[in-house]
């Protein structure tokens, strides 16, 4: 159990910290296996955190389980298995996976695409861009199964996407679950 003043934030503290970012409209912690929000603060896109959690969990699950988004050099990556490269496709370079309103996505990652205990998802974060907002999903590594992510909803005009990525990564590293 976490003691007060230990400097290690839990779910509520992390979500409140995320809401202090410029342009933050809402933040949640979601289990991408069950699609349930483990915590949420602020407004929900569409007005319903449970529906938002379920929908973003589908996206996160697809990306986390995708072998094509494995890190460069991973034997399960398409280039290593002999799959043809698609001209104009983004390669796994260590950048975040990003999806814009047109559905174009890029990739990043660290390890094996098959998420198992003590393994990290192949992608660090996802960025979905709409006409008026950014949705940043940051995968959280945990000692048990790493099936959760932080979701930050930013106003596009007021939010600072670069700062949000940095701060969400720091929050994910410090987050204590359990």
TrEMBL record:
Domain of life (superkingdom): Bacteria
Positions of region (Disordered): 65-95, 101-120
Biased composition (Low complexity): 70-95, 101-116
Name listed for the protein in its UniProt record: Uncharacterized protein
Upper lineage: Bacteria, Bacillati, Actinomycetota, Actinomycetes, Kitasatosporales
């Amino acid at each position: 159990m976490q003691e007060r003043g230990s400097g290690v934030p839990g779910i509520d503290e992390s979500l409140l910290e995320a809401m202090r970012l410029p342009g933050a409209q809402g933040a949640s912690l979601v289990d991408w296996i069950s699609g349930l929000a483990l915590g949420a603060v602020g407004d929900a896109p569409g007005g319903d955190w449970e529906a938002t959690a379920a929908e973003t969990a589908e996206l996160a699950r697809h990306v986390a389980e995708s072998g094509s988004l494995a890190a460069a050099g991973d034997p399960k990556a398409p280039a290593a298995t002999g799959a043809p490269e698609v001209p104009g496709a983004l390669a796994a370079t260590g950048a975040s996976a990003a999806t814009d309103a047109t559905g174009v996505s890029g990739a990043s990652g660290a390890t094996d695409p098959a998420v198992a205990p003590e393994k990290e998802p192949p992608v660090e974060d996802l960025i979905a861009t709409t006409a008026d907002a950014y949705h940043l999903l940051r995968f959280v590594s945990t000692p048990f199964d790493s099936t959760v992510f932080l979701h930050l909803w930013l106003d596009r005009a007021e939010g600072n996407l670069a700062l949000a990525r940095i701060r969400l990564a720091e929050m994910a590293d410090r987050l204590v679950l359990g």
